[in-house]
């Protein structure tokens, strides 16, 4: 009986792994296609589509734009999130519960609707579509995330460590720089990393709020209009590779932290 | 968030400048770029597209135009199917990962299972197109093996949209359910076994009820993300059957009709809010 | 003598390379209160898990009521466990928790509720039937866990550091209750702890464990007064330990040469063998009233007033590495810096093979 359960479990797990990996395998495989259609039969391997991607100025500049928007908006989100989390965790403020609720509210709203709202607002205010506008939108979606992660990690233990520092004569700004930030570093780092990946991958807000200079997901979207194309496979595989490197780095730093 | 532990030891903040200096930037950002856009959208939705006077027609259109109404029905149907299927697929998978896979391989097994989760969302949908297209992998395999003579219509269908969604949400739910299962103290399982429950009854009476709140949170997250997503239905479902996000985007893209797009967005939000209120008591199940 | 309720025969267990139990044999009598006492890493919890069926030993056998239970799963052996974190099911009411074992046996709802109420009354929580575990205090949860384990009438109840999560005052109170409940139900209890006071207060049979072995076992009075090994002399209460060598043996006495000088002890010991002499703090005498065995002079280094007595530390003048621990009446006038004669009665010296 136990053996049967085991076998069925393994088969089921394999099937789910298969389902999860089929599209990724197909994507990467046909990015190496030699001919112009990413459909069977496989004619590669060839790197011609990777060359095509790297020599496409629109794609490479979109990649730079994406990195820029992701890093600046994440840094902004994590800074605002950290400061407010610290304020709410350390001080009793009137209406604290409501205000915290307000900060986390965007988590429950679709990106589409956040993007729509900003589009209408900027349209009325006469602000042009730009990377800055998209970056503002990315801070809106990532700020609640950073706040929630950092706030949930600010426990009594950290409060007492800070108290000890104040007791020993550290002024408020030194407490912040020498005690709070280093102690909260894992949460700050996690918030920043998640923001980076979400911003890096975000489509609909960038799509609504940018025009000529745009981010990579939007540029890939434009590429899709040409139908199935090995170039799209190649750029997709590259994005996949970058994400995996990021995730592995994240895992490794987390693991190292845990060991020490 | 654990706020209860903090308040007892926090410092009084009233009448001091520092606490407000800390929280104002975040609050200001939220007010300016989240709340204000909503107000703008609200005003916009009450304005006529032509001329700009006050009107309720943007809302009434939704209820009178059957194709708009149909988009909402489609969205709700697809979201319900996706949520249900994803939970049913992910739960056993997470359970197997947490219980059948040896402890030291679990981290790797889980990381592998959610690896495609970290790839670009747009690319992931496109990958499914490669699999499901008229001349894609599945159709080539089926015609090649002689099982069918004419390729099946797989892309540009509801089936394709659901497949793309389920692919994403199975990974998301596997992550949350796995975390949930690992959080349970191993002594619950031991205690149940000790008191005479076999594996099946331990699961039904102890493990499942204890992970139910986590499942509900995951399902709600799936619902919210799924009903508001534009990419997957647009790439995989095509325009044969419109979902709400596609309808909203269509108003902006083709016709530049911001007021109608605003009204439709607000209606979509209202539906999500109703779903949230319906789930709220599930989401707040007490924990010991 | 009747057959023992539990008979653990030559059990050894390894986790990977690490040997956590080394050839342990133990018998548990019906209706007894057995305490497994030892520091962390001594193997006491592993031994309890083997009894409960959560761990199958690498070697050896476990018999319960004469049946070989070595590989029988927890559900099918007549033991139940009270877990360290209680493991109360948070989604069930207290009544549901206590009735869970009966429900698994297929007992009908009404009988189940009645028995659960009875068990809750036994632990003094009759009114908590409809509450959820999170509404209870730590001590109350502990009692619910006890009721849940007792209601299915096990032959042996296993308790894994059951009082560890409670504060000191509550711990002493629960200690008395545990003992009373055990007497009332008559079930054999096996209780793991690292608290020697708890062990002395509760045990009928005290098993001192260290490094995967049983160092000593017996009634707590005996283990305290006549510890079998150096470890149990220091772990179960404090002792002053003098290392020495037997230099002369007569019919009923031997002379042991120690850093504090020659000491006469009871019993004929083999000449030339190394021994350790242990003396309990309350048996050491400082200054004035000299006992029958002189232990030389010592300089008092510390006097700590502890209410009903004074705890005195003194360093031997003959050997600075030898420290005496004595317990004197609260009225004693000794001061730090005093040099005093140390002695004790020959009868109170415990001779340990070294």
From TrEMBL, chain A:
UniProt-listed InterPro entries: Bact_Polyamine_Transport (IPR051789), MetI-like (IPR000515), MetI-like_sf (IPR035906)
Cellular component terms (Gene Ontology): plasma membrane
Highest taxon of source: Bacteria
Pfam families on file: BPD_transp_1 (PF00528)
GO biological process: transmembrane transport
Protein localization: Cell membrane
Bilayer-spanning residue ranges: 7-32, 67-89, 101-125, 131-154, 175-200, 234-255
Membrane topology: Multi-pass membrane protein
Keywords: Cell membrane, Membrane, Transmembrane, Transmembrane helix, Transport
Cleaved signal peptide residues: none
PANTHER family: PUTRESCINE TRANSPORT SYSTEM PERMEASE PROTEIN POTI
Similarity comment text for this entry: Belongs to the binding-protein-dependent transport system permease family. CysTW subfamily.
Protein name from the UniProt record: ABC transporter permease
Organism this protein belongs to: Mesorhizobium jarvisii
TrEMBL record, chain B:
Gene Ontology CC annotations of this record: plasma membrane
PROSITE patterns, per the entry: ABC_TM1
Localization per record: Cell membrane
Entry keywords, A to Z: Cell membrane, Membrane, Transmembrane, Transmembrane helix, Transport
Membrane topology designation: Multi-pass membrane protein
CDD domains: TM_PBP2
Coiled-coil blocks: none
Matches recorded under Pfam families: BPD_transp_1
Stored InterPro entries: MetI-like (IPR000515), MetI-like_sf (IPR035906)
Segments traversing the membrane: 20-40, 78-98, 105-123, 159-181, 202-231, 258-279
GO biological process terms held by the UniProt record: transmembrane transport
Family: Belongs to the binding-protein-dependent transport system permease family. CysTW subfamily.
Designated name of the protein: ABC transporter permease
Origin species: Mesorhizobium jarvisii
UniProtKB/TrEMBL annotation, chain C:
A Gene Ontology term for the protein's cellular component: ATP-binding cassette (ABC) transporter complex
Entry GO MF terms: ATP binding; ATP hydrolysis activity; transmembrane transporter activity
Alphabetical keyword list: ATP-binding, Nucleotide-binding, Transport
GO biological process, one term: quaternary ammonium group transport
Taxonomy, superkingdom: Bacteria
Gene3D superfamilies in UniProt: 2.40.50.100, P-loop containing nucleotide triphosphate hydrolases
PROSITE patterns: ABC_TRANSPORTER_1, ABC_TRANSPORTER_2
Cross-referenced InterPro entries: AAA+_ATPase, ABC_SmlMolc_Importer, ABC_transporter-like_ATP-bd, ABC_transporter-like_CS, Mo/tungstate-bd_C_term_dom, P-loop_NTPase, Transp-assoc_OB_typ2
Similarity annotation: Belongs to the ABC transporter superfamily.
Protein's UniProt name: ABC transporter ATP-binding protein
Organism annotation: Mesorhizobium jarvisii
Lineage: Bacteria, Pseudomonadati, Pseudomonadota, Alphaproteobacteria, Hyphomicrobiales
């Amino acid at each position: 009986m136990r053996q049967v359960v085991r076998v069925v479990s393994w088969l089921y797990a394999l099937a789910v792994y298969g389902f999860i990996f089929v599209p990724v395998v197909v994507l990467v495989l046909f990015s190496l296609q030699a001919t112009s259609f990413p459909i069977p039969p496989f004619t590669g391997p060839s790197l011609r589509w990777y060359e095509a991607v790297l020599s496409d100025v629109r794609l490479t500049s979109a990649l730079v734009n994406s990195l820029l928007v992701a890093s600046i908006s994440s840094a902004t989100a994590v800074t605002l999130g950290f400061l407010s989390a610290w304020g709410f965790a350390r001080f009793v403020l009137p209406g604290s519960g409501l205000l915290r609720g307000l900060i986390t509210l965007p988590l429950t709203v679709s990106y589409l609707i956040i993007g729509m709202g900003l589009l209408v607002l900027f349209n009325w205010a006469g602000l042009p579509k730009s990377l800055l506008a998209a970056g503002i939108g990315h801070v809106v979606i990532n700020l609640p995330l950073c706040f929630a992660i950092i706030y949930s990690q600010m426990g009594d233990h950290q409060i007492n460590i800070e108290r000890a520092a104040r007791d020993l004569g550290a002024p408020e700004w030194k407490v912040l720089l020498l005690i709070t930030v280093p102690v909260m570093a894992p949460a700050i780092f996690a918030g920043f990393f998640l923001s980076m990946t979400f911003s890096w991958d975000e489509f609909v807000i960038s799509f609504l709020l940018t025009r000529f200079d745009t981010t990579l997901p939007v540029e890939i979207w434009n590429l899709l209009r040409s139908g199935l194309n090995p170039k799209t496979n190649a750029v997709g595989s590259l994005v996949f590779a970058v994400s995996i490197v990021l995730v592995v780095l994240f895992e490794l730093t987390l693991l190292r932290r845990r060991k020490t | 968030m654990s706020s209860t532990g903090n308040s007892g030891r926090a410092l009084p903040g009233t009448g001091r400048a520092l606490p407000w200096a800390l929280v104002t930037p975040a609050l200001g950002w939220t007010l300016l770029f989240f709340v204000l856009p909503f107000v703008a959208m609200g005003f916009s939705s009450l304005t006529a597209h032509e001329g700009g006077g006050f009107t309720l027609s943007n809302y009434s259109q939704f209820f009178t135009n059957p194709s708009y109404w149909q988009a909402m029905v489609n969205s709700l149907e697809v979201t319900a199917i996706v949520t249900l299927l994803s939970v049913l697929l992910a739960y056993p998978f997470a359970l197997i990962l947490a219980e059948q896979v040896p402890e030291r391989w679990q981290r790797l097994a889980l990381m592998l299972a959610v690896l495609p989760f970290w790839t670009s969302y747009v690319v992931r949908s496109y990958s499914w197109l490669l699999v499901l297209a008229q001349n894609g992998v599945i159709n080539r395999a089926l015609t090649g093996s002689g099982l069918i003579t004419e390729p099946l219509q797989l892309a540009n269908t509801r089936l394709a949209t659901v497949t793309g969604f389920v692919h994403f949400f199975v990974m998301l739910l596997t992550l949350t359910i796995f975390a949930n299962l690992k959080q349970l103290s191993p002594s619950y399982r031991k205690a149940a076994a000790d008191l005479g429950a076999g594996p099946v009854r331990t699961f039904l009476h102890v493990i499942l009820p204890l992970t139910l709140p986590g499942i509900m949170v995951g399902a709600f997250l799936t619902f919210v993300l799924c009903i508001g997503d534009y990419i997957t239905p647009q790439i995989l479902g095509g325009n044969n059957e419109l979902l709400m996000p596609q309808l909203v985007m269509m108003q902006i893209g083709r016709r530049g009709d911001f007021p109608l797009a605003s009204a439709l967005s607000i209606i979509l939000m209202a539906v999500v809010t109703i779903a949230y209120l319906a789930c709220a008591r599930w989401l707040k199940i007490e924990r010991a | 003598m009747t057959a023992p309720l539990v008979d653990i025969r030559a059990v050894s267990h390894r986790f990977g390379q690490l040997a956590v139990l080394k050839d342990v044999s133990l018998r548990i009598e019906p209706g007894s209160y057995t305490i497994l006492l030892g520091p962390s890493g001594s193997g006491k919890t592993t031994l309890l898990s083997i009894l409960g069926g959560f761990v199958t030993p690498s070697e050896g056998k476990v018999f319960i009521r004469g049946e070989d239970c070595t590989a029988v799963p927890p559900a099918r052996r007549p033991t139940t466990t009270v877990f360290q974190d209680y493991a109360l099911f948070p989604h069930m009411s207290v009544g549901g928790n206590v009735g869970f074992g009966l429900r698994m046996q297929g007992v009908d709802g009404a009988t189940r509720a009645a028995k659960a109420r009875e068990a809750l009354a036994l632990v003094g929580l009759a009114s908590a039937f409809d509450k959820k575990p999170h509404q209870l205090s730590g001590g109350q949860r502990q009692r619910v866990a006890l009721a849940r384990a007792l209601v299915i009438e096990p032959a042996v109840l296993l308790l894994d550091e059951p009082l560890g999560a409670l504060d000191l005052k509550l711990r002493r109170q629960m200690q008395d209750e545990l003992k009373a409940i055990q007497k009332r139900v008559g079930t054999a209890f096996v209780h793991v702890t690292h608290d020697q006071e708890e062990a002395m207060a509760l045990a009928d049979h005290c098993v001192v464990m260290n490094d995967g072995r049983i160092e000593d076992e017996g009634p707590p009075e005996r283990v305290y007064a006549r510890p079998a090994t150096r470890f149990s002399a220091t772990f179960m209460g404090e002792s002053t330990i003098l290392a020495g060598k037997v230099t002369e043996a007569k019919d009923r006495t031997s002379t042991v040469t120690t850093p504090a000088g020659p000491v006469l002890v009871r019993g004929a010991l083999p000449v030339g063998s190394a021994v350790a002499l242990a003396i309990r703090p309350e048996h050491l005498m400082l200054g004035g009233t000299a006992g029958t065995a002189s232990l030389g002079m010592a300089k008092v280094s510390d006097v700590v007033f502890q209410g009903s007595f004074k705890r005195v530390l003194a360093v031997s003048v003959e050997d600075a590495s030898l420290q005496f621990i004595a317990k004197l009446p609260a009225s004693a006038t000794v001061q730090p810096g005093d040099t005093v004669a140390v002695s004790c009665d020959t009868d109170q010296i415990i001779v340990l093979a070294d």
